[in-house]
Design goal:
Layout (H helix, E strand, L loop, with lengths): L1 E9 L1 E2 L2 E2 L3 E6 L3 E5 L2 E5 L2 E6 L6 E5 L8 E6 L4 E2 L5 E2 L4 E3 L6 E7 L1 E2 L15 E3 L2 E7 L4 E6 L2 E5 L12 E4 L6 E4 L2 E5 L9 E2 L8 E7 L2 E7 L5 E3 L10 E9 L10 E5 L9 E4 L3 E4 L2 E5 L9 E7 L8 E4 L2 E2 L2 E4 L10 E3 L1 E2 L2 E2 L1 E10 L5 H14 L27 E11 L7 E2 L1 E5 L10 E4 L21 E2 L8 E11 L3 E5 L5 H4 L1 E9 L6 E6 L10 E5 L4
Parallel strand pairs: 10-12
Antiparallel strand pairs: 1-8, 1-18, 2-3, 4-7, 4-9, 5-6, 9-17, 11-14, 12-13, 13-16, 15-16, 19-38, 20-21, 21-22, 22-25, 23-24, 24-38, 25-35, 26-31, 26-38, 27-28, 27-35, 28-29, 29-30, 30-34, 31-32, 32-33, 36-37, 39-44, 39-46, 40-43, 41-45, 42-44, 45-48, 46-47
């Protein structure tokens, strides 16, 4: 959920609305940076100008601050007297010696060469040099507080954009589909990995069906000539893979190759394919695993195909959130090669309809599979099919961002560096708030450091020539953390690569995590496939906390 906070009010003087500059300050101390110096003081959280007509103001607070605040309204003190200064109507001047008043310009002109004797007359304008001015009472700042701001939350629904995916086709996103009439010429992969599906010929184009499932678009193949091809195996080799499909078979008794909804790899040597079929089965050359239920021929199902061991004897499947039993198994090691396809494999084509396909990366947890099932079920109107004990039976998954009010402890949990498997480094890490200002770090720590000259403090010392470096064998997983002294919300951060081996040791895959106790950590966001090519190279990142 995303949190917003604000404070609103009205500024009046003797019951009359006035225009004033209004600023909010945190009641509690907040660690932050002022001109490069770390301080722990109350912090300005935002400002506004009250409406002269009704005195109203609203301040949206920095970093969704939810603690108690003071609100201060400031009168316009104007400029100090400057000889022969040109003044426009409305501009104010305060005398060198304060006397409780300021002088507001009512007729444009220039101030005299020497500071005049200021006449305290709030009814009639006086001439000062060539400028006409009138005395106005100067009101000391008005303070209200401590008060609690108004805090609101917005539910942000989870989608595959909130995790890493290998492959993602979404028929409801028509911006990813190229049509020739109602025929689908191409279907773009939303994962960012460019595994786009293309019809090999005009006659092979499947059909787009609008307003079909829960009011959304699907794509159907006729089982005769319609198919789509994808360059490469999408997920090749022996790695674990999890593919989740929302589809319907349009055959009453689907079986074998011609019930293949999605195939990774081209049939050739034994184990060279990973076919997901409507029967429900995972088929390869030389060995299959067929489960004890098939897809519906009248409605759509959510089916999870799990290749967890590199061998069909260990494969699993789920249908609408429930684990399936096994009918038959023929053991075969699997390592897909060649191109992939939809609506069949080769000349064996399947009569079926596809709504969405999501391929999760190796190591996908059961929780992530259930989150994806919940997302698909509520999006496509299939939540009624989930078992009653499914965590997303009633409500769809939402983006659970760690500590939207901010956290005291933040860390980088690093799972890969840029090339060297033994060590990880960073010359500088700079956390920034929503105003782009650096946030002062009180202390830091790391899972491992090469020596005192390469300890975690070197990543936060504002010196790009020094750097944090893990000891040998401490590259991944590893972590480096900071303590800000109090809760802060990080809006962005910079990483600067080291001078010696930036292309080998700089972090290339990591998660940003937060904690309130420096023990239990929650992931805010992940970053992958970073490349570093030069020393002291700076990369900037946004922390997506809507």
């Amino acid at each position: 959920m995303a949190q917003k906070s604000k404070v609103s009010g009205i500024v009046q003087i003797d019951g009359t609305p006035v225009e004033r500059s209004v600023r909010a300050f945190g009641y509690n101390e907040t660690a932050h940076d002022i001109d490069g110096t770390a301080v722990t003081l109350s912090k300005s959280l935002g400002n506004a100008t009250s409406d002269p007509a009704d005195g109203s103001y609203t301040i949206d607070l920095l970093a969704e601050y939810g603690g108690e605040i003071f609100v201060v309204a400031f009168d316009d003190y104007g400029d100090a007297f400057t000889a022969e200064q040109a003044l426009a109507v409305g501009e104010r001047i305060h005398p060198t010696t304060p006397n409780g008043h300021v002088w507001e310009t009512t007729g444009a002109g220039d101030l005299p060469a020497e500071e005049p004797t200021w006449v305290v007359d709030t009814e009639t304008s006086q001439l000062y040099g060539t400028a006409s001015m009138i005395a106005r009472p100067f009101y000391r700042p008005m303070v209200q507080g401590p008060i609690a701001p108004e805090v609101s939350t917005t539910v942000v629904l989870w989608t595959p954009e909130n995790t890493s995916v290998d492959f993602w086709l979404d028929a409801s996103d028509e911006s990813t589909i190229t049509l020739i009439g109602a025929a689908v010429e191409s279907w773009a992969d939303k994962s960012g990995n460019a595994h786009d599906a293309n019809a090999p010929s005009a006659s092979a184009r499947p059909t787009l069906v609008e307003d079909s499932l829960n009011g959304l678009t699907i794509i159907s193949g006729d089982g005769a000539v319609q198919t789509m091809e994808i360059a490469g195996p999408v997920v090749g080799g022996t790695v674990d893979r999890t593919v989740i499909i929302v589809a319907r078979t349009d055959e009453s008794s689907p079986s074998g190759d011609n019930s293949t909804i999605f195939a990774m790899g081209t049939d050739g040597a034994s184990g060279s394919t990973f076919q997901m079929t409507a029967e429900i089965g995972i088929r390869v050359r030389g060995g299959n695993r067929i489960f004890d239920q098939q897809m519906s021929s009248t409605d759509f199902d959510i089916v999870v195909f799990d290749g967890l061991t590199g061998n069909t004897s260990g494969y699993e499947a789920r249908k609408n959130g429930a684990q399936l039993g096994v009918n038959s198994t023929g053991g075969q090691s699997v390592s897909p090669t060649g191109d992939s396809s939809l609506f069949g494999k080769g000349s064996s084509l399947a009569k079926c309809s596809i709504a969405e396909i999501v391929s999760l990366p190796e190591g996908a947890t059961l929780d992530l599979k259930k989150i994806t099932e919940g997302y698909l079920a509520h999006k496509w109107g299939l939540e009624v099919k989930l078992p009653n004990d499914h965590p997303y039976k009633t409500d769809p998954p939402v983006v659970e961002l760690a500590a939207p009010l901010g956290s005291r402890y933040w860390r980088f949990y690093i799972t890969a560096n840029a090339g060297d498997n033994d060590r990880t480094s960073a010359a500088e890490i700079v956390f920034k708030d929503s105003a782009g200002e650096a946030i002062a770090v009180v202390t830091s720590a790391a899972s491992a450091s090469n020596s005192s000259s390469n300890n975690s403090e070197k990543a936060f010392d504002s010196d790009h020539n020094s750097y944090w470096l893990t000891s040998y064998g401490g590259a991944a997983p590893s972590w480096i953390s900071v303590d800000f002294g109090s809760n802060v919300a990080v809006n962005s951060f910079d990483i600067v690569s080291e001078t010696t081996h930036p292309h080998l040791r700089t972090m290339a895959q990591f998660e940003i995590q937060t904690s309130d106790d420096n023990q239990t950590w929650a992931t805010v966001q992940g970053y992958t496939e970073l490349e570093w090519s030069s020393s002291q190279e700076t990369k900037s990142f946004i922390v997506n906390m809507p």
